Every structure is written in structure tokens, then in C-alpha cells.
């Protein structure tokens, strides 16, 4: 069995804030859906950690207050905190967050994914990789890496737009 990078992570109690409930008016195709921080957080909070059978929320890697949404200008920013400053899984975690949002949100959104400032020794390099469209596309062309991303991302959820999250990516790739 491979040695764990963080063998004994701190586990946090998940937020008492419940997942958003879909309302009947959310299904109206004539109206643009308004996306907010809670909805984005709901999409990423249940992503599994690559090393442990815990969610990113349980490890405090993702937090609601580190998600910003400017719906009017179609921009979303997500910051995440690796569990240790030398976490070699930071890029994979960020890629999983990006894929989850790519699969779930309308295409009009520009999404920035960043390691929270001061929380990783290679934060600039990781951030550059996560926000470079060509690097992300190349990573997702790697079948093995895509399988890992799919295992880590929860597939049991149907997103706010009524399709399984894997539907969009399977059409695109």
C-alpha cells in the first residue's frame, strides 16, 4: 500500500447549511438560472479526497466563504486549502473541482480555481496549471487521470439543470 502524504488529517464537522432544494421555478427554461455561492459550494463539497474516504468539506479543503459568484458578470472564483503545505494532490483536487463545475454549470461562466494564498508551497505553479485551459484539456485527455477524477467526483447527484454531471463531459470528450 502506498504511503499516505497526510496519514492523519484533521476531520471537521460538515456545515449544518443544507444542500439547496430545487424549486419548480428552477425548471423554467425561459429564465436564466441565478447561481450563487451556496449552489457552487453544494456542487463541490461532496468531492472525495484522493487519499482518504472523506469529502473535501470534511477536511476543510473547501468552504462556503471561499466561493465567490458574480452571476451578473458570469464569473466564479473558488479557493481551496490543501490539508498540508506540501500536498502533492493539490493539482488533482483543483482539477476535480474544475471538472465538477464544468460538468454542472452553464457554459457562460468563467471559473477560476486557486489554492488559498499562503497554504501551499507551490501555490503559484498549481494555480497556473488549474487556470490554463490547454493544460486542463490535456489532463482530461489522459484516460487514467480522467478515471481518477471520475472516481473522486460524486456522480450520484443530478445537477441543478436536471442532468447527471457526467452527461456533459461524456458529450465533450
Automatic annotation (TrEMBL):
* BP-aspect Gene Ontology terms: chromosome segregation; protein maturation
Matching InterPro entries, A to Z?
FSCA_dom_sf, MIP18, MIP18-like
The MIP18 family-like domain covers 38-115
One Pfam entry for this protein is: FeS_assembly_P
Q: Tell me which GO cellular component terms the UniProt record holds.
A: intracellular protein-containing complex; iron-sulfur cluster assembly complex
The reply on keyword Lyase is no
User: Gene3D superfamilies, per this entry?
Assistant: 6.10.250.1280, Fe-S cluster assembly (FSCA) (3.30.300.130)
SUPFAM superfamilies the UniProt entry points to: Fe-S cluster assembly (FSCA) domain-like
- Which UniProt keyword terms apply here? Chromosome partition
Where does the chain cross the membrane?
none
Report the sequence similarity comment from the record: Belongs to the MIP18 family.
Instruction: Kindly give the PANTHER family that the UniProt entry links to this protein.
Output: CYTOSOLIC IRON-SULFUR ASSEMBLY COMPONENT 2B, CYTOSOLIC IRON-SULFUR ASSEMBLY COMPONENT 2B-RELATED
This chain's protein is named: 2808_t:CDS:1
Q: Which organism encodes this protein? A: Paraglomus occultum
